[in-house]
Amino acid sequence: MSAQTASAPLPEGWREDNRAMWDERVPVHVAGKYYDLAGFRARPDVLRDFETAEVGDVTGKTLLHLQCHIGTDTLSWAHRGAARVVGLDFSAPAVEAARALAAGLGHGPERAAFVTGDVYEAAAAVPEPSYDIVYTGLGALCWLPDLRRWAETAAALVAPGGFLYLAEFHPVTEMLDDTTGTRIVRDYFSRDAQVYDLPGTYADPDAVTVHNRSVEWQHTLGDVVSALAATGLRIEFLHEHDVSLFPRFENFEIRDGYHRFPADHPRVPLIYSLKATKG
User: Fold this and answer.
1) pLDDT (tens digit per residue) in 16-68
2) Which domain of life is it from (predicted)?
3) 37 and 101 in contact (C-beta within 8 Å)?
4) C-alpha–C-alpha distance, residues 258 and 141, integer Å
5) DSSP per-residue string spanning 213-244
6) What's the CA gap between 196 and 206, in Å, rounded?
């Protein structure tokens, strides 16, 4: 099956509602324990071990982070040796927080730049036309209805000889019940918009919030791979991981720094990662 976009009309105001939701949550994330910015300033590297192993040495390379939020992952690549990192996000408060974090760590915009822009219009917002590495991290693709347009935009920003690296939550998890992850309760192939009205945030479920409407989309693994392959990028690998970064299911345990199912639970892919190169 070829890559698909959302199969129903887009909900009215989806982009504005999503932006308002994220804008409101930035101060909660900046001040809270989840992102622990005080700890990050002391040890500015929050990248996952599989990411650093799969991306490899970034020394001297340029890196663009699409949908960067408050910039902790972006700046972690700088501290891993990238010559220049650029982060893009559609939330102006998130970009301001990222700039402040970078400045506090001694990075000027020539080393770590953050810009506000819609990911679909990234080429017009970022300072350089292409980058050695285009990176997008966990929890990004669900906010985008048009996967093919995202793939075309991201691929166009990869410099010749460079690559796109994607780490994302596995869509299989969205099929399963939220308690034990043992029952299939949702349609894997659904591409309709999922509209939520939920207070709080994954970083602080008890936070008092007003802008609670959000709109998300589910993308199958086949859709992601097909969308990137259609751009001409060469898929180098697709890896699946049985770890998560948050307690997605109620029976999760923390082992080796990751959220996981209990040891006697059948293993389920929780995250996938992908590398696609430009010849």
Assistant:
1) 999 999 999 999 999 999 999 999 999 999 999 999 999 999 999 999 999 99
2) Bacteria
3) yes
4) 21
5) EEEE----HHHHHHHHHTTT-EEEEEEEES-B
6) 17
DSSP 8-state secondary structure symbol assigned to residue 106: T
Q: Which domains does the chain have, with CATH numbers?
A: 14-277 (3.40.50.150)
**Sequence-distant (≥ 6) Cβ neighbours of residue 100 within 8 angstroms:** none
The list of the chain residues with pLDDT below 70 reads: 1-7
DSSP 109: T
The pair phi, psi for residue 227, each rounded to 5°, is -65, -40
Output the pLDDT for position 170: 98
Four-point Cα dihedral 41, 65, 21, 205, nearest 10:
-50
pLDDT of residue 3: 44
Distance between CA atoms of residues 40 and 57, nearest Å: 21
Encoding tokens for residue 225? 């791979």
Per the structure block, which two tokens stand in for 96? 């301001």
Closest alpha carbon to 135 in 158, 105, 108, 110 = 158
CB 228 within 8 A of CB 252: no
Please tell me the distance from the alpha carbon of residue 237 to that of residue 241, in angstroms, as a whole number.
Answer: 13
Residue 233 tokens read as 């990028």
Q: Which amino acid is at 169?
A: F
Collapsing DSSP to helix, strand or coil, 271 comes out as strand
Bridge partner list, 110: none
